[in-house]
Amino acid sequence: MSLEKFLTQSRSSWMNGNGPQSDIVLTSRIRLARNLKNNLFPTIFTPEDAKNVLQQIEDTLPLLTLHPLKDIEILKMEKLQPLHKRVLVEKHLISPNLAEDSSHGACLLTPNEEISIMVNEEDHIRIQCIFPGLQLNEALSLANAVDDQLEQHLEYAFNEVRGYLTSCPTNVGTGLRASVMVHLPGLVMTQQMSQLIPSINQLGLVVRGIYGEGSEALGNIFQISNQVTLGKSEQDIILDLTSVVEQIIEQEKSAREVLAKTSGLQLEDRVYRSLGILTNSRIMESKEAARCLSDVRLGIDMGYIKDIPKSILNELMILTQPGFLQQYAGGQLRPFERDVRRATLIRERLLLGKND
């Protein structure tokens, strides 16, 4: 497969890098947790119960009339190869838990991958919408439209006092988890991030790595999301998160200005050294790739590098993950082979970007 064809098939709409505050905010994501009334929740249901839930949801697909759902496709986990499931995880379309437990789990996915609906993960239904940049309200609007469409044909587990009932008590109420993925090299380099995280946690938010809970903040990329849903409206959750993110954006911009004023030449040198590594290396480990991609993205945002669109960096953060590398190669690769393939893909993609 040629690189151009592989990239065409592998891009998600959020990778285009077009969105408000996209120099710092990579994505906005909304997730709604829902369960079906009169059905055991996934934490205690049997394989037969899971099969029944999946069938109920599958039966609703021909009834969906909302335009974004017109060509939605169902991907059943038990029919996917482990490599394909890993790629879905790397693209943030399904969770690692759904990939690992394939018993009657599924993902409903729109062609542009803006909407993904996990079935039989921690809850019966998890609606997810991902937008580029800081667009939490827009993502929430679409997620609510999808939710309303499904609720026309499915009866949810709902309590007038508690709200939507979920497997995890922290999701009871609105069932809403809102998150933003942010690139914060300035705060990391100025050693402010370690002080900022505890402050964010005190506000009822949580800071995680690039793939959520338990993951590492590779390439200075962090996810910030709400922790509490019970007793708060959807708009309150979005307002609180947006307010904090906007403050973080301002602090990141200030940190970048400080770096430019106090260490401008050293920062520019670091950016171009990383670009040199990316464009010339023949072997590239994942952590080194993430670090260099972060530096180059910062260089683009600060105007040092003008001939590489930042959307390429969004793509490469995902395309250089192990699952994607092996999909591109057409089969399993040993760690060293992945490192070689990663270096090759980065060189080729950067060259394509300059020629675009």
From TrEMBL:
BP GO terms, sorted: phosphocreatine biosynthetic process
EC supergroup of this enzyme: transferase
Domain Phosphagen kinase C-terminal residues, every copy: 24-255
Keywords: Allosteric enzyme, ATP-binding, Kinase, Nucleotide-binding, Transferase
Xref: CDD domains: bacterial_phosphagen_kinase (cd07930)
Keyword hit for Nucleotide-binding: yes
Activity modulation comment: Appears to be allosterically activated by the binding of pArg-containing polypeptides to the pArg-binding pocket localized in the C-terminal domain of McsB.
Residues at which ATP binds: 27-31, 92, 126, 177-181, 208-213
Gene3D superfamilies for this protein: Glutamine synthetase/guanido kinase, catalytic domain
RDXXRA motif of the pArg binding pocket involved in allosteric regulation (motif): residue ranges: 338-343
GO cellular component annotations of the record: extracellular space
Any GO molecular function: ATP binding
EC number: 2.7.14.1
Reaction catalysis annotation: L-arginyl-[protein] + ATP = N(omega)-phospho-L-arginyl-[protein] + ADP + H(+)
NCBIfam families in alphabetical order: PRK01059.1-4, PRK01059.1-5
Role noted for this protein: Catalyzes the specific phosphorylation of arginine residues in a large number of proteins. Is part of the bacterial stress response system. Protein arginine phosphorylation has a physiologically important role and is involved in the regulation of many critical cellular processes, such as protein homeostasis, motility, competence, and stringent and stress responses, by regulating gene expression and protein activity.
Similarity section: Belongs to the ATP:guanido phosphotransferase family.
PANTHER family recorded: ARGININE KINASE 1-RELATED, ARGININE OR CREATINE KINASE
Name of the protein in its database record: Protein-arginine kinase
Record organism: Perspicuibacillus lycopersici
Lineage, opening ranks: Bacteria, Bacillati, Bacillota, Bacilli, Bacillales
